[in-house]
From TrEMBL:
Pfam families: p450. Keywords: Heme, Iron, Metal-binding, Monooxygenase, Oxidoreductase. Heme binds at C518. GO terms for molecular function: heme binding; iron ion binding; monooxygenase activity; oxidoreductase activity, acting on paired donors, with incorporation or reduction of molecular oxygen. The lineage of its organism: Eukaryota, Viridiplantae, Streptophyta, Embryophyta, Tracheophyta. Belongs to the cytochrome P450 family. It comes from Theobroma cacao (Cacao). Gene3D superfamilies: Cytochrome P450 (1.10.630.10). This is Cytochrome P450 97B2 isoform 1.
Amino acid sequence: IRCQSTSTDEPKAKRNLLDNASNLLTNFLSGGSLGSMPVAEGAVSDLFGQPLFFSLYDWFLEHGSVYKLAFGPKAFVVVSDPIVARHILRENAFSFDKGVLADILEPIMGKGLIPADLDTWKQRRRVIAPGFHALYLEAMVKVFTDCSERSTLKFENLLDGEHSCGGEAIELDLEAEFSSLALDIIGLGVFNYDFGSITKESPVIKFIFNLSTPGLRKDAGGIAGHNVGGFVALEKGKYYLMLVYFEAVYGTLFEAEHRSTFYIPYWKIPLARWVVPRQRKFQYDLKIINDCLDGLIRNAKESREEADVEKLQQRDYLNIKDASLLRFLVDMRGADVDDRQLRDDLMTMLIAGHETTAAVLTWAVFLLAQNPSKIRKAQAEIDSVLGQGRPTFESVKKLEYIRLIVVEALRLYPQPPLLIRRALKADVIPGGYKGDKDGYKIPAGTDIFLSVYNLHRSPYFWDQPHDFVPERFLVEKKSEGIEGWAGFDPSRSPGALYPNEIISDFAFLPFGGGPRKCIGDQFALMESTVALAMLLQKFDVELKGSPESVELVTGATIHTKNGMWCKLRKRSNGH
Ligand code: HEM
């Protein structure tokens, strides 16, 4: 569901009509099979003027941590409680599938892990998970530092050059910069493809030109009005490629979101894909991405060197030319898989690992820029651990404060803010904090929004829930009589570099939990730690405007409406 922050001055009559329709539906649906579950009486017009997850938060405070929301002709159960989350994600995980989310993502990701049905998921998770082994992550830290260095060098050049205002500061949309950085990294990590080194003469650019791109739009807005114009500072060739890539990927996601909110599935009508312009565009975008991935798979298969998983995990990852997951998956003995499945897997990881990480960095900077003392604390740690050097796998372990900043940014701005599930069979879910002790019966087919945003800002489980306090993760928190919740205890997950759902007993779920937990969590966390450390090592950051002027928009992740415009200065202490 796409929610965009828009102005609230729509005609009153329209708002009343929406309210009445919503109330009728709510009343009609509230007599349904969900027993005594509280029902949010919110009006549809509440959904205008602010992103959806803000409204879900208000209703959470009003109705409790499990409530039912009638939303158009659909009804959802909204969950904002760790005990219920634990039930759905871990204890009874296989009684739920991805429901609406799978419907939305299937045309793009096919049978990739995120939307996959249970049988496919079981088979592919077993094959893909070993790809994220320790040596791979170590090799990736080098990729993170190489790519981050490319970004910081670019900023330094801009500061030294004509773009700086009086040689002191540059103004940059850091959201766009992080998006570019995360794309470089995910391209290398997943299929050893360096988007960042693309020039106009590269075969890929020629390949794309050969597709004779019709009507490539300069305003390729994409899923959340992403400001592609932010890339103009990049090399021209790269800009063009990224434009094509963003155009295709965002265009595809945008269409998926459109389908999720459009009640008549007209795209299923024969010939619609050829006749309806937006469906033609969707097919075209898919073709660009799929052709590109098919080419990469072909190349990898041509140079296949088959080996057992253990052997693959012991390769000299720091020195081999291609450390990517694609290489691992193609070379794995016994994992012969058709190209279509492999392409779905790659596409899923490309999308899952790109904007999510970019968003973490964006919101971390947003929060830091409002807390200069925390920037100084972070820089003091960076100076003492790294000096002028580059981060390594070992030094990430010492950058404790930076790691805490990353997870605190994920607490306040979880990506995605909602997890989606559908009950495959009838179940009884716990009642949640202050809810019905006997729990609530839910019939098969019930759609659930698990609001990670609400959970992460729940006043029942966090002190000062809206404040940016990275240090909070170091402090043990007793359950204080909350029945069934084990409290917050860092010793519960010994050796974990980053706080997780186990430590928090499902009150902190930035990567989900249970069997379908994110497969790239450590990859993404280390990537964010390295990128943030290297930025703060060199620069001081300030917001260009007020924090209030940064408007939120949600698609799959929380974005800004018009970019995260910041002022960047070289650090005053001579670094
Ligand atoms: C699943 C978040 C980065 C690949 C998930 C889920 C979350 C999540 C919340 C669970 C979804 C659900 O239960 O419905 C994030 C965040 C990231 C990130 C916040 C960055 C900060 C990555 C990266 C990759 C990746 C870098 C791959 C390289 C996946 C995959 C799944 C997944 C394949 C599906 C797992 C399964 O169902 O078995 N991610 N992710 N993610 N993520 Fe991530």
